[in-house]
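User: For my dataset I need records formatted as: sequence, then C-alpha cells, nothing else. Please produce one.
Assistant:
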Amino acid sequence: MQAFVRGVAVAAIVGLSACGSNQLMNIETGQNSPDEFAILPTRPLSMPPDLALLPTPTPGGANITDPNPNADAVAALGGNPASLADQGIAAADGALVAHATRRGSDRAIREKLAQSDADWRSRNKRRPLEALFGTTVYQRAYRPMALDSQTEQQRWQRAGAITQTSPAPREE
C-alpha cells in the first residue's frame, strides 16, 4: 500500500512540475509565434494644414503615419531628426568615434556575433532530461560567461576604484 501511495505522490509531483514553464530563458524555445516586439503602432491619422504639403504617393513607399523609431528616439533625446538623413558622424562625436575605431572596425561584427552565439548554443543544447521535462538551459549554457558581481566589486575596490554605491570591502 505504501509503495502505491509513493508512486502516486511521485506521479503527482512529476505532473505538477510539467505545469510550470520558463520559456523566456530557454534558448531552444520554438519560434512559431509572432514576435510581439516587431509590431510598431502607427501614428494617429491627422489632417495636414495644407494638402499641398503631402508627399507624392508611391506604391510600396513610406506613409506619413508609419513609425520612424530612429527619428523618434533622436527627437526624444533632444536631437534633430532631420539630421538623420545624412547618417554622418556629428563633429562633436568625431573624437569619440576616432578613439573607438583606433584599432579598426569590422562591418560584419553583427553577423559574426550571431554566428558565434549560434555555435555556442549548438554546443550547449538541452540534455535528454532537460528536454523531457522542459527545463531551462539558459543559466547552465551561459554560466561560464557570467560575472561574479561580489568578486568583481572586491577586485575594483582593492585596485582603489571608488564605488560609491557599494559597501566597504570586508576585512579578511
